């Protein structure tokens, strides 16, 4: 059994060893750059942890696992263009460092590279791996589309928001775990359980991320608190607040949302207080707990000795900031 | 044996029957739109004509063939964003009709759809089809990257130009034919011959397209003549002209290239005259003939009765405007 840390090192070594040296450099340099600026490498590690439940030797799965990370980074690259985001993980985004055309085209090439790595799996897994991956990849695009559409809508409902984060974030965690299970020769039932484990983990993780953006500790969270509030991002918290707010609370919330001129700290503090007053904070925690419990239920049911699942339980706990 | 026309109808019917009705509409409408504005459907027809050399029943190959057309249209969609092109086949481009973000994201989703269709091939062909497709798709991106880089360079050489059009245009024709051969259960040798047939056909076709943009008949060519000259596009003709021009010819050419204020018709006529004077026109024709002969040599060698290849010979003749 591999630990999370061991797999993280393996994944990093594999990424560092990828060959992007063919011309044209202008196409491959941005790939190297975005893959080089780090991240937790969560998705390929999930592929490998999942496969490791069923088999010991993971070498043939390294490259397909890296393919998922390459795909994930491709989506970040294009999302940053679409969101016009200047910074990713404290570094200039690709379209800032180069330009939009470079970001579009090297992203396209990156998605094909992702496929090349993913189809390096063994022949007997190829069909199943592709079926999961294609569906997941398409859903990620659907999620991004909903996310963009929500920016221009004032009537987004909680269920729509949950469906959006399921597509944009959660299914790729589920898909990674399922592809790992397939490549580990798990049976279909366990592969599906791991998929649902991952999707629910992804939901809990994203809701927790939204929560920490408002109520987190900057030191621990690793990025500035309040960003979602400042840009009126329609997260669970804001949608729920609008659902519950009445009278003066509603008026105050609406004023902050439509304010053009404001002090950032003041807005963050004010909106956070409204969230607390309306118990949106508690409801968010309750929702996270709900997905967290569900995800554990699925993991419990996976038909391997509990001891093999230890690393996954630890990971879940860390990701969702809960004790198992 | 199917005729080109029959296959064109089949391809069109299949494209019309594609289901793009799942939400979000904003993601799938642009796909329907760009697939709907037509084109010759050359690539899927090449897949099917190639397979048809080796087998009669093509039904299982329809969808993978459509996948190649979807991929091709995805590249057009993103190229149009990168080139900031307002019009494609007399219609507004996707980023004009919607916006850049829509074009980027629906293009991304389209490339995944392309994979979904392509991998619908039979299991025994899956690995080979994917190997050809992945390599080809990546090369198409490399070609686009070179094309964009050439815009900012004054020293592009003929060989570099030929390599760029090989990657950007020719390999996808070769790849289509090879994938068709694989799905038709051709042996590896015939599949490779068809690949090289297609690549050389693609070279001849692109050079002919460049030629017609300068010397063609607007009625027959179907688009305005002289566009490449007006935007100083570094085609075979212009690069060759700079290679050969001396003294006053060189000075005149340079003046037209750097001119900011000019009468369009005057520039077209002047540059065309220089091309004729420098015999660039003849050299272009000679180069087209060279690729045309090579492509026929490869097709000749494909190990099926000559009569089965009739449709392909007719197609080549039509595409390159030569008699076989």
UniProtKB/TrEMBL annotation, chains A, B:
GO process annotations (BP): isoprenoid biosynthetic process
Family: Belongs to the FPP/GGPP synthase family.
Gene Ontology MF terms: metal ion binding; prenyltransferase activity
Source domain of life: Bacteria
Pfam families, per the entry: polyprenyl_synt
Organism of this sequence: Marinifilum breve
UniProtKB keywords: Magnesium, Metal-binding, Transferase
Cofactor(s) for this UniProt protein: Mg(2+)
Protein name: Isoprenyl synthetase
